[in-house]
Amino acid sequence: MNCLFCRIIAKQIPADILYENEKVLAFKDINPQAPVHILIIPKKHISRISDLEESHKDIISELIFTAKKLAEEKGIAESGYRLVLNNNKDASGFSYSPSSIRGKKAKLAPGMKSRKKKQMMKDVTFAFFDVETTGLEHYNGDKICEVAILKSRNGKDVSSFHTLIDPGRPISEGAYAVNRITPQMLRGKPRFSEVAKDILKRLEGTVIVCHNAFFDMGFLKAELNVLNLPLPSCPIVDTLSLARRYFDFWSNNLGSIARSLGIEIDYEQEHRAMGDVRTTQRIFQRFVQDLEKKGIDALNEILSDGKVNRVF
Fold it and tell me: How confident is the model at residue 34 (pLDDT cuts 50, 70, 90)?
């Protein structure tokens, strides 16, 4: 198997591991929703609940006992915590996060509201975010070479940011075949360290929207780690995850979804950061409209969904 969690277990993708034995692995969430937020996954690949067999009982027990052990170690066993079971293709594995710690309720990330208070689209600032890179694997040294952010509120664009970045390493042939970014285009451009704080400031207080958030936010986290800077504590919504969960496209890549929805694409800017950001914005807006036509309060369901902030 080659799912995200299998690759973490195989140490192909780095993770902040807190506990590991022959049956389970526990690690810190890459973008926590609470002061303590830990993912606990079985080492045996189990895609969904319906795949469970009698022989898996000991694995399930180990997951629960690992949660108990870590809650005690983190000092939240008495104050309380939530144990969440994520199921099927958009949520594989087990996780837990505390609803309160040391008597204080865990704060929601900026832009998030309590489920009891309905969130209105006009009140949310969305930051559509995309990166282009020198290759596919930040854990093997690939770097960001282009960033774009488009912020919108109440259906109107409020600001945009775009820059090419000198990655300090060559662009792979495979990456060039997709994004068509050449070494000459990057010559004299800023290094990521020169724009990092500007990027974080622009994302602060927004709901971040990406297509394949694991890729974009994974690269952002890797670059920020080098600078000892944290990811912004914002809700993160993945249009790829929404496509898989609510729709049935023949392909879920960005261009295919756009074409299926009749969304116009600037082909000269396809697979470039700002072009893909604008396409992601249009797809997200259509998703919200289409879901609401089906009677789903799309915005509030997305923002209160337990998988927000854990989509990658």
Answer: low
* Three-state SS letters, the chain: CCCHHHHHHCCCCCCCEEEECCCEEEEECCCCCCCCCEEEEECCCCCCHHHCCHHHHHHHHHHHHHHHHHHHHCCCCCCCCEEEEECCCCCCEEEEECCEECCEECCCCCCCCCCCCCCCHHHCEEEEEEEEECCCCHHHCCCEEEEEEEEEECCEEEEEEEEECCCCCCCCHHHHHHHCCCHHHHCCCCCHHHHHHHHHHHHCCCEEEECCHHHHHHHHHHHHHHCCCCCCCCCEEEHHHHHHHHCCCCCCCHHHHHHHCCCCCCCCCCCCHHHHHHHHHHHHHHHHHHHHHCCCCHHHHHHHCCCCCCCC
In tens, the pLDDT along 38-78 reads 888 888 888 777 778 888 888 888 888 888 888 888 888 77
The string of pLDDT tens digits covering residues 126-152 is 999 999 999 988 988 999 999 999 999
Reported as a pLDDT band with limits 50, 70 and 90, residue 167 is: very high
Name residues whose C-beta falls within 8 Å of residue 184's C-beta, 6 or more positions apart in sequence. Answer: none
In whole angstroms, what is the distance from residue 7 CA to residue 30 CA? 15
Do β-strands 156-164 and 144-153 pair in parallel, antiparallel, or remain unpaired?
antiparallel
Q: What is the architecture of the domain spanning 4-105?
A: 2-Layer Sandwich (3.30)
Of 3.30.420.10, 2.30.110.10, 3.40.50.150, 3.40.30.10, which CATH number belongs to 121-304? Answer: 3.30.420.10
